[in-house]
UniProtKB/TrEMBL annotation:
It is a multi-pass membrane protein. It comes from the Eukaryota. CDD domains: CBS_pair_voltage-gated_CLC_euk_bac (cd04591), ClC_3_like (cd03684). It comes from Geospiza fortis. This is Chloride channel protein. Belongs to the chloride channel (TC 2.A.49) family. ClC-3/CLCN3 subfamily. The keyword Nucleotide-binding applies. GO terms for cellular component: early endosome membrane; Golgi apparatus; late endosome membrane; lysosomal membrane; plasma membrane; synaptic vesicle. Coiled coil: none annotated. Residues 658-722, 755-812 form the CBS domain. Keywords: Antiport, ATP-binding, CBS domain, Cell membrane, Chloride, Endosome, Glycoprotein, Ion transport, Lysosome, Membrane, Nucleotide-binding, Repeat, Transmembrane, Transmembrane helix, Transport. It holds the Pfam family Voltage_CLC.
Length: 818
């Protein structure tokens, strides 16, 4: 239901303008001190939803948290389910932090009582480090497994190693003595499918057979991946980063970080990458790492029983995920801080750093690529860059920003169309069609046939004397002395020009296919395809600048620093800068992205070109829309996420946004001591609200507190069982002192202990920009609006999101979990 349905018969209240002033100062003070709290199953439906699940007790007072009453004082034994959250709820950050402080104080107060209590205290203190250590170990091991399996299955599309079936193409030829320098990937142990099936290694028949087998394996892998996702773990599809951002902001999506999702995502990620689709494994690795963090957090009560503390572990896990995805531990920590985390205290920074360290260490121990590096495309450049080169670097930044803006709009439009048409009902068919088109077009072009990580490696690599790629087919000056690390700029040969044409076709192909691939129902990351697009563009620009400098070295822009026979331009550096610019244009990351790419290359020298390109791409992208791709997908899916980067500049007041509006029905309430058990049970049965405000009387409108529906139900049921004399006509008392009753009256039921009397409140004249800031910084789900200490209404997170959508001329009805 919408928030218009929050309010119900039984309590008529005029608009706030008609509220009369309090009769005395004392009354004002009393009214201001006890303002009620609302809790909800879906933020917006604060008094609406399934009463049997998902309700929870909260203590949300800005300055008097310790004065909150304890729900568990109501009964002798703990009440099952109290304090937990149901699916698609938002957690109460203030309450969770208060609960953790209370737990910490309790442990500290007991630790001197005995050696066992001291041991429990030490275990509690170290549990944070233990859980991130386990998360780092698991993330590194799974990343190594995924890398090795994806490489093997990618090569399986082209052939098989007869001497050892588990070797990929490169490993198969390592031990062969019959390889030549020019044809280092050809060895008798490795057989293409054409050689195995029709016995031909060359010719049109061989080409067609290899083409058919390439398509067959690509479709097989894609079909298996989408089938596993659909049947076993629907949450395993996509990148996972938009949902992780939402989860870290306090939203709960049950099963998204569960063991089935982890298992299926790990398997299908390998299949999706091996199928040749235009996607990467880096984004999903963050999801995999967060699944590990979530599963391990259940081993420690400190984290399993506290949703806010659990999110500290997930922040560290996301850092470990990026650490193993790019071999960039520092970049992973910054990525977690800049891009995904909502609440990031200093100790989470240290634990994120440690988790990233452990994960990177484990991956390095596994050494999945056989190059003693954490990533396939690690490169080192030795040529310095020159001031003039900032111009092409900035142009690459402009290209990255334009690509990012285009991709976000095109991909969101396609995903919205998928949601609103019948096409979205056939995810398996969509994946098969996209995989078939990708395989058919990719095979003829050697650059699109390559695994995308291999393509980036080739584009990043500088041309040395040992390179046999067509990108390095330069015409050599036979008189020049050959120096391994400093080959002079040379005129491009025919191989370079044909490679440029192939790269241009690959660029168009990647741009189109990535738009349609990101968002299909298989694990699909965006980092690698975006980097590939930028690397292709950068390499083309790098070769163009290199040839310009070679043929026009007497121009004033080259004359000062580029002499004849010198190695001035490094095309691979341009590819790296272009990759960073395009990834920045899509995600709008800045600091973390520069550090990730810097860690990839290991060169401090190229920080300035990277910063220039990344900032340019962000500025250009922001000119077309401030949202990155992850924020756009969060909005598309309707998750209740308040983006801290988004500015609120409108001059509205809390009274303009709060509910109820003048046309809305009034609120269903409980009175302090005038209702019977039967009255409350009737109200509970006739409504579906999750809680009710408690007032002194319907005439005074003075608030006493707020009682949750679930707590009322549990308390009444327990009282009927355990207390004699509680019947339907028993008076229910929420006051501190029971009023005098006639002698023949049944025993009253005291429910003062289940009230929350310290919620967060603002006045009706509070500017909305302050309200929005409060919601962001405290992680609130709702706050109450008061006038002279009397309740006027309520503002929920979804009310704010709807209001922000309206001010941006967007459809406010889209702010709902889809």
């Amino acid at each position: 239901m919408e928030s218009e349905q929050l309010f119900h018969r039984g309590y008529y209240r005029n608009s706030y303008n008609s509220i009369t002033s309090a009769s005395s100062d004392e009354e004002l003070l009393d009214g201001a001190g006890v303002i009620m709290d609302f809790q909800t199953s879906e933020d917006d439906n604060l008094l609406d939803g399934d009463a049997s699940i998902g309700t929870h007790y909260t203590m949300t007072n800005g300055g008097n948290i310790n004065s909150s009453t304890h729900l568990l004082d109501l009964l002798d034994e703990p009440i099952p389910g109290v304090g937990t959250y149901d699916d698609f709820h938002t957690i109460d950050w203030v309450r969770e932090k208060c609960k953790d402080r209370e737990r910490h104080r309790r442990i500290n107060s007991k630790k001197k009582e005995s050696a066992w209590e001291m041991t429990k205290s030490l275990y509690d203190a170290w549990s944070g480090w233990l859980v991130v250590t386990l998360t780092g170990l698991a993330s590194g091991a799974l990343a190594g497994l995924i890398d090795i399996a994806a490489d093997w299955m990618t090569d399986l599309k082209e052939g098989i190693c007869l001497s050892a079936l588990w070797f990929n193409h490169e490993q198969c030829c390592w031990g062969s003595n019959e390889t030549t320098f020019e044809e280092r990937d050809k060895c008798p142990q490795w057989k293409t499918w054409a050689e195995l099936i029709i016995g031909q290694a060359e010719g049109p028949g061989s080409y067609i057979m290899n083409y058919i087998m390439y398509i067959f394996w690509a479709l097989s892998f894609a079909f298996l991946a989408v089938s596993l996702v659909k049947v076993f773990a629907p949450y395993a599809c996509g990148s996972g980063i938009p949902e992780i951002k939402t989860i870290l902001s306090g939203f709960i999506i049950r099963g998204y970080l569960g063991k089935w999702t982890l298992m299926i995502k790990t398997i299908t990620l390998v299949l999706a990458v091996a199928s040749g689709l235009s996607l990467g494994k880096e984004g999903p690795l963050v999801h995999v790492a967060c699944c590990c963090g979530n599963i391990f957090s259940y081993l420690f009560p400190k984290y399993s029983t506290n949703e806010a503390k659990k999110r500290e572990v997930l922040s560290a896990a996301s850092a470990a995920g990026v650490s193993v995805a790019f071999g960039a531990p520092i970049g992973g920590v910054l990525f977690s801080l800049e891009e995904v985390s909502y609440y990031f205290p200093l100790k989470t920074l240290w634990r994120s750093f440690f988790a990233a360290l452990v994960a990177a260490f484990v991956l390095r121990s596994i050494n999945p690529f056989g190059n003693s590096r954490l990533v396939l495309f690690y490169v080192e450049y030795h040529t310095p860059w020159y001031l003039f080169e900032l111009l092409p670097f900035i142009l690459l930044g402009v290209f990255g920003g334009l690509w990012g803006a285009f991709f976000i709009r095109a991909n969101i439009a396609w995903c919205r169309r998928r949601k609103s048409t019948k096409f979205g009902k056939y995810p398996v068919l969509e994946v098969i069609i996209v995989a078939a088109i990708t395989a058919v077009i990719a095979f003829p072009n050697p650059y699109t046939r390559l695994n995308t990580s291999e393509l980036i490696k080739e584009l990043f690599t500088d041309c040395g004397p040992l390179e046999s790629s067509s990108l390095c087919d330069y015409r050599n000056d036979m008189n020049a002395s050959k120096i391994v690390d400093d080959i002079p700029d040379r005129p491009a040969g025919t191989g370079v020009y044909s490679a440029i044409w192939q790269l241009c076709l690959a660029l168009i192909f990647k741009i189109i296919m990535t738009v349609f691939t990101f968002g299909i129902k298989v694990p699909s990351g965006l980092f690698i395809p975006s980097m590939a697009i930028g690397a292709i563009a950068g390499r083309i620009v790098g070769i163009a600048v290199e040839q310009l400098a070679y043929y026009h070295h007497d121009w004033f822009i080259f004359k000062e620093w580029c002499e004849v026979g010198a190695d001035c331009i490094t095309p691979g550096l341009y590819a790296m800068v272009g990759a960073a610019a395009c990834l920045g244009g899509v995600t709008r990351m800045t600091v973390s992205l520069v550090v990730i790419v810097f860690e990839l290359t290991g060169g401090l020298e190229y920080i300035v070109p990277l910063m220039a390109a990344v900032m340019t791409s962000k500025w250009v992208g922001d000119a077309f829309g401030r949202e990155g791709i992850y924020e756009a997908h969060i909005r598309l899916n309707g998750y209740p996420f308040l983006d801290a980067k988004e500015e609120f500049t409108h001059t509205t007041l809390a009274a303009d946004v709060m509910r109820p509006r003048r046309s809305d029905p009034p609120l269903a309430v409980l009175t302090q001591d005038n209702m019977t058990v039967e009255d409350i049970e009737t109200l509970i049965n006739e409504t579906s609200y999750n809680g009710f405000p408690v007032i002194m009387s319907k005439e005074s409108q003075r608030l006493v507190g707020f009682a949750l529906r679930r707590d009322l139900t549990i308390a009444i049921e327990s009282a009927r069982k355990k207390q004699e004399g509680i019947v339907g006509s028993s008076r229910v008392c929420f006051a501190q002192h029971t009023p005098s009753l006639p002698a023949e009256s049944p025993r009253p039921l005291k429910l003062r202990s289940i009230l929350d009397m310290s919620p967060f409140t603002v006045t009706d004249h509070t500017p909305m920009e302050i309200v929005v800031d409060i919601f962001r910084k405290l992680g609130l789900r709702q706050c109450l609006v008061t006038h002279n200490g009397r309740l006027l209404g309520i503002i929920t997170k979804k009310d704010i999101l709807r209001h922000m959508a309206q001010t941006a001329n967007q459809d406010p009805a889209s702010i709902m979990f889809n």
